[in-house]
Design goal:
With about 220 residues, this protein is an all-alpha fold. The chain has a single domain, classed as Alpha Horseshoe (Serine Threonine Protein Phosphatase 5, Tetratricopeptide repeat), CATH 1.25.40. Helix content is about 60%, strand content about 0%. It has ten helices and no strands. α6 runs parallel beside α8, α8 runs antiparallel to α9 and α9 runs antiparallel to α10. The protein is elongated, with a radius of gyration of 17 Å.
């Protein structure tokens, strides 16, 4: 688990704009859902993969085709090798080839279903593939393995906020991070999100957008 896999790429200015848009839509009625610009502002990070894609415009590293081919040959020759499947999934994730990462994370979890890190990486891959409900369902599975998994809770909050416009649910996730993992980078990141929400909506509780809780609501 690398330190750079923490969520660090979310623009708090964009987050504040998103919060304002959601709160405004609650008062004025349904509005056009934010498209790629909102999703690009959110950057859930893998728990064990390489550097995460973010909203800074940085290009992902090019896919090492030779290494991918070598790992796939090893995976096919060693059907019980979990590590090679995780390595291959991480390689595809780092290159933003999420469609290719997903089946290898799934394969790794079939061999080791209790790995919360890999489960969360899979959930993040679903998110980047625009499979929001599937992403939240996968993070629920991660939390069933480890209810205090801080990176899962942090990512759950981001996906609830940016994927579902469910600010109330996002706050619950981030408050849980602060409660279960105080004095960690994850807790500090979660607190920043909470502080941004409170600064945009100082009046108190924030309700979810209409229909915003989705399948990830807990």
């Amino acid at each position: 688990m690398k330190p750079e896999t923490l969520i660090t790429a979310v623009s708090f200015a964009c987050f504040g704009v998103l919060v304002g848009w959601i709160l405004g839509s609650q008062q004025t009625g349904p509005a056009m859902a934010p498209a790629s610009s909102t999703q690009a502002a959110a950057s859930p990070a893998p728990t064990s993969g390489g550097g995460s894609p973010d909203s800074t415009g940085d290009q992902p590293p090019p896919l090492d085709i030779q290494r991918a081919a070598d790992l796939e040959r090893t995976a096919n020759a060693q059907p019980a090798n979990v590590d090679v499947r995780v390595d291959l999934a991480n390689l595809y994730f780092d290159a933003k080839r999420f469609d290719r990462a997903i089946p290898w994370y799934v394969a790794a979890l079939k061999l080791n279903p209790k790995d919360a890190d890999v489960s969360t990486d899979l959930g993040v891959s679903y998110y980047y593939s625009n499979q929001i409900d599937q992403a939240l369902a996968q993070l629920d599975r991660s939390l069933a393995i480890d209810p205090k998994h801080a990176k899962t809770l942090l990512n759950q909050g981001v996906i609830r906020a940016f994927g579902k416009q469910d600010l109330s649910g996002a706050m619950q996730s981030w408050e849980r991070v602060v409660a279960v993992a105080p004095d960690t980078d994850e807790a500090r990141q979660a607190q920043k999100f909470l502080d941004t929400l409170k600064s945009v909506h100082p009046g108190g509780a924030v309700g979810g957008a209409p229909g915003g809780a989705g399948s990830g609501g807990r």
